[in-house]
Design goal:
Layout lengths: L2 H5 L3 H15 L14 H8 L7 E5 L11 H6 L2 E6 L2 H10 L4 E4 L1 E2 L4 E7 L11 H7 L8 E8 L1 H7 L4 E7 L5 H5 L8 E8 L11 H10 L2 E7 L2 E6 L1
Parallel strand pairs: 1-2, 1-7, 2-3, 4-6, 7-8
Antiparallel strand pairs: 5-6, 8-10, 9-10
Helix pairs in contact: 2-5
Length: 236
């Protein structure tokens, strides 16, 4: 039995593993220059260099440190909402970022329980998008299991949190990025900078690339820079 499987055997050992993951494996107490996978957080920090504090919304947040586009902002004194369909992710955020609002949700059109495909509790490809799952199940999802997670409209989450201005939005939702983007009413929610996965890791455009670009252009967003699969857009 692997060390990870041992720690997942009970609630007590699970909590120990969360502490291990944050403080031993990822050394959250150490300050690093960048936490993003492709150093896009340095561009984000530079964009807000004259702003001491602000609000972020991280959808598909995955991990509070590893590959995080918002951890540098948190270190700077910012706070926000972190959303992921994996409860383990949210448990990590509750330890690492207690001042944030951390929610285990699928962003959807109705409030209901939906099926989520898990590659593992610590995988970045867990998804509620059936098409994404079917396209990638041969490469990933070797030890697949499913769970039901609550789906909720984005506007309902923002209304419950009394947030009308979000300085930075990060969307990384494994095939659901455009569906989530469409839920933003940028006339009501003021966003300065937005990061979204519009490319695959090999540099090719996703199927929703044109739709994402058109929707952002329609709402007066301009392209800033691309880092790997992630593109940054700023409000004109």
């Amino acid at each position: 039995m692997s060390l990870r499987k041992y720690f997942l055997k009970s609630n007590f050992t699970y909590k120990i593993y969360l502490i291990y993951n944050l403080f031993i494996r990822h050394k959250i107490f150490l300050r690093k220059k960048s936490y993003s996978q492709f150093a896009e957080d340095l561009e984000i920090i530079n964009f807000f260099k004259n702003q001491k504090k602000g609000k972020y919304l991280d959808i598909g947040c995955f991990h509070p440190v590893m590959y995080s586009n918002t951890h540098l902002l948190y270190r700077k004194g910012w706070s926000g909402i972190n959303i992921d369909l994996n409860q383990t992710t949210i448990d990590l955020f509750n330890i690492a970022r207690p001042k944030d609002i951390n929610l285990c949700r699928v962003i959807g059109g109705t409030e209901k329980m939906v099926k989520v495909h898990f590659d593992s509790l610590f995988s970045p490809v867990n998804t509620a998008e059936e098409k994404f799952y079917k396209e990638h199940k041969k490469k990933f999802f070797k030890n697949e299991f499913t769970r039901e997670v609550m789906s909720q409209k984005l506007n309902d989450i923002l209304n419950e949190s009394n947030i009308s201005k979000i300085d930075f939005v990060n969307i990384d939702a494994e095939g659901m990025d455009y569906k989530i983007l469409q839920q933003f009413d940028f006339n009501k929610i003021k966003v300065s900078l937005l990061a979204i996965e519009a490319h695959y890791f090999d540099g090719t455009q996703t199927e929703d690339y044109s739709n994402i670009l058109a929707y952002l252009q329609k709402n007066d967003f301009l392209f800033l820079k691309r880092y790997g699969p992630t593109s940054l857009f700023y409000k004109n």
